[in-house]
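Encode chain A's predicted structure.
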Amino acid sequence: MRKLLSWSIAGALIASSLAVAGTPAAATTGRLISVTALHTYATRADVDAALTTDKFDPGTDRYGVRTYRLVYRTTDPTGRPTTASGLVALPINDEPRLRTVSFGHGTSIYKLDAPSTSDDVFLIGPALTFASAGFAAVAPDYLGLGVGPGPHPWMDVPSETTASLDLLRAARTFTARQGRQLARDVYASGFSQGASAALGLARALQSGADPYFRAVAVAPISGAYDFRHAEIPALFTPAVHPVLASAYTTYLLSAFDRLHDIYPYPGYVFRSPYVDLPELFDGTHPGEEILMALPPSIDDLLTPRGKAMLLHPTGRFADALAELDSVCTDWTPRMPVRLYYSPGDEEAVNANTEHCHATLGAPTVDVGVDTDYNGFVHEGSEVLGVPEVTRWFTALSS
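Encoded structure for chain A:
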């Protein structure tokens, strides 16, 4: 899970499809609305100093970096026009034409825990790393996070894809105004939730979703690629921390019910006194507040019908899970793919990577284990994985 919730727990415990070209939505998606300059890391040493505060390896750094928040037009999960925000990081160098990395962040619950609205290095570190290596880095906040309106549709791959693609379009406009150009080639990566987002973006670009951009490599880190057959069953086992299991389960059920109407009323799936718990997952409540409200285990959270729904999904819920898991099942990449992971991941269990490897045929890369970072293997896998992905993308683009 994204750092905020995991950090809070660790400290306490230890759209729809892409718009069709020619439609009104397609005519406005990706349009740049505003730009806010955020930070200037004037030298490579400044970037190194920022990254090492959160244990990122600065070994790939070469340049200073400037960061910006972009607000742009996109579509919501029903295909209606909306806005979203995202972070763009550009290297401070004389290169007029920049290769681009799109990086999807991990799970956030609070709206401002997003790349363009947070100074948390865990969130902005990947963009700093890629930009300091010479890439233009774009990091979508996703819908409903950052300064985007409404609740966040968690683990909704179609809207993650449109938000990512439309940020690329807005970033192309922005960099042109800076007298620079984004190259056509896009390298996609992401962590945890963002791992699925990266695969979704690469799949869309391969299918021709944009006439300019093309995906040339994809490197997801520690994704939950098989919710139905790997992640959900693990929530009921010691493989996932019990309070984290409660958090993920509540987020999944509340977000999917908002989008897909999967249960008739909250008491159908949530036990008393947790019937109102989904209301905390609307983006306005910090992780510390949610931590205090979570039950100690998933068994305390769910009714028998709620447990049965998760373990034996049917109808709209089963269809939504199939769409989520399709990032590893319904396409054949025509680009290099590597699946990065840490052994013993206690959030996105390793069976997810194993299942994606089996269906996509993509090689896996063990980045090792860093349990010093926040006390969780999962968070440590981003810190270990991002520099390795940067080295691979750099080698591919040389």
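The first helix runs from residue 3 to 13.
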